[in-house]
Amino acid sequence: MLDVSREQALAYRIAEQGLHRSVADPYALPLLDLGLQDSMRDTALLSLAARMPDPVTPESLVDDQRLALVWSHRGAPHFHRRTDLPELVTALVPAGDPDALARILWQKKDIQAAGVSPVDVLFTTARAIRKVVTKPMTKGAVSTEITKLLPPAFSRWCRGCNATHVHEQLMRLASLHGGARLEPGQTPATLAPLENRGRLSTRPVPAAVSRVLEQYLRFNGPATPGDAAGFAGTAKTCVQETWPSAVTEVKMDGRRAFLPTDRLAALENPPSPAGVRLLPPLDPYTQGRDKTVLVPDKARAKEVWKILGSPGALLVGGEILGVWRTKASGKRLTFTLSEFDPLRRADRQAAEDEAARAASARGYQDFSVTWA
After folding, report:
1. What would you report as the CA-atom Rg of the chain, rounded to the nearest whole angstrom?
2. What is the residue extent of each domain of the chain?
3. Rounded CA gap, 20 and 34, in Å?
4. Residue 164 has what pLDDT?
5. Whole-number Å distance between alpha carbons of 19 and 51
6. In this structure, what is the dihedral angle of CA atoms 172, 174, 176, 180, given to the nearest 10 degrees?
7. Phi-psi region of 254 (alpha: psi -120 to 50; beta: other; left: phi over 0)
8. 155 phi and psi, to 5 degrees?
9. Mean of the pLDDT values across residues 246-272?
10. Angle between helices 139-149 and 118-132 (to 10 degrees)
């Protein structure tokens, strides 16, 4: 059995995730096989800027018609290749009621109140979305309309909205099955019908689920079944029957983990990490579920992953050695970088160069960098 160190695993992940900037076309970025998560703070755009050799602009993702923004893994918004969407939809069909229950984050008492199975809850909501979303509509408008079509037990009181409406996670998970995508760059969130959307299918496709798990292991491996299940948004017990066959068990610092068999050679001899990258919050690299592998020091880990308002991560030579935040004031963007230990002058300069790339990606020509 192959035994690899933590440093070797991180070097492998950095290379697999494109952080060496060896791919010039965003569409060709292998990481899109799994999807690129987005958020209100330009997460996907900044993740792209950390991986592209050429400058990224605010339009790089929004205007790329080869890509679509959808609620996919865990109900989070991700950019995917449009050509990958048909298989992605099948990969998100729950394997059964326990899987569906884990994904929609309901308690058993909620399902009992609904009076139907978790799978039926999901696809009843998907049918309502398919009926309602026939043109671009804000998320709030869609929620209002589908709430009228669904049983009362599907709804919850929302303190933020001061209204009762369909459960947020349920709506997110059902939207792609309902043939709806998100309009990129729109605030508030706006849904629109998918072009050439196919018929609603409720049949599980284990092979499609296996490919998602295998892709997670490719980009975040070596990793455990629990890690992969966490990315998919389900319970570890729910991935046992769809666990990919083309994976090999390895040891990482003495712990059992798995990697796609065809990536073993890349894991054995990964290129050495070099340079500095500013990774945004929710970047695919820091989205790895084994956070103790990424940042073993507990105090530092608490700085990287906060319960609310996590900062970006400062990646230096293969290790997360600090965090960063931004604050916009008019047309000016201010970066605040915090190092865990004093960095070399060259690394500080490289981090400031990365800040310039990030500012340009977000459309700011006027920016400043402060070291905390």
Report:
1. 21
2. 3-193, 276-371
3. 18
4. 86
5. 5
6. -80
7. left
8. -105, 160
9. 96
10. 120
